[in-house]
């Protein structure tokens, strides 16, 4: 079976360390494996479904997300990076898929449900927003992708995509392929919480540490982080569960970080034990986390600065990638229309 990988991000803001943990780290790993094709899509059309009144925000962030990709090391020689709206075939796919989904099914999608609540649309839900899982099914199937590296908030989308695929194939003959999510190995990376510890880290919620944040900002955000509200004195026993600092350490720290920045502990388990017993202060664990994050973010930040002085190159990557993706899209749309018997003049 061919191995076609596709993922994407909404250009609603710069990318954050939740993206890194949930999806980018996996993409970097996958781009060095054997595959037939790998796509990374900047989902500007999808971003417009809940930002339609703010097109400049979406436009500006297309570039920011592209800068983040390249700064992290996504390699345009291996990966086709493209902009969703540059592929009009996607809207055709979406249009035909809309017939295969019921309104109640869309309303039951748990990710959409929680996003609707957050956005406080009340009773005026834009149809486009409610239908974005259908357009996501189009993104995946148009490129015949079968491996989708995502965080776990995307699992309902994958499920819905596969339902559409099965429905389509049963009505129009075997045409589309089912896909599967590729989740990070570390369960804590599935859905990194924001620095407030309340919700998942999300561009729309303002609880993020961005890949592009400068050192001072990272330091301030780490120092503000939610820990254990009952751990008031250093000697009080501390709680690990729900403690955002420890969740981040679980995701980002390894033994070599301890050797470099906190040699009095060998590894995270030792630190956790000591913290739970009492005697380890929050400032100490936060400073350690700051060092761990800085080790990850410094090279990304430096690469970003370099690329910011060469925006023409970044534009070219997007333009070329979109051109390449379009060739595949045109070809596959023909197959879809043939299956639905609307290929009159071919
Ligand atoms: P928005 O608030 O606009 O929805 P977002 O921060 O949720 O933005 P998306 O562009 O929707 O980011 O998500 C892109 C990818 O990153 C998806 O695969 C998603 O699962 C993953 N992702 C987003 N946030 C997190 C997180 N906090 N932890 C792990 N993965 C995440
Ligand atoms: Mg999201």
What does this structure look like?
There is one protein chain. With 346 residues, this protein is mostly helical. The protein folds into two domains: 4-191 and 311-340, HUPs (Rossmann fold, 3-Layer(aba) Sandwich), CATH 3.40.50.620; 215-305, Tyrosyl-Transfer RNA Synthetase. Helix content is 55%, strand content 6%. It has helices spanning 17-30, 44-51, 55-72, 89-97, 103-108, 110-119, 127-130, 132-142, 155-172, 215-223, 244-252, 255-261, 268-277, 282-308, 311-339; strands at residues 4-9, 37-42, 80-83, 147-149, 180-182. The strands form two sheets. It has a three-stranded parallel sheet. A two-stranded parallel ribbon has the order 4-5. The longest helix is centred in the last third of the chain and has 29 residues, at 311-339. The protein is globular and about 75 Å long. The model has no long low-confidence stretch (mean pLDDT 95). Adenosine-5'-triphosphate binds at residues 9-10, 12, 18-19, 21-23, 150-151, 153-154, 191-192, 200-204.
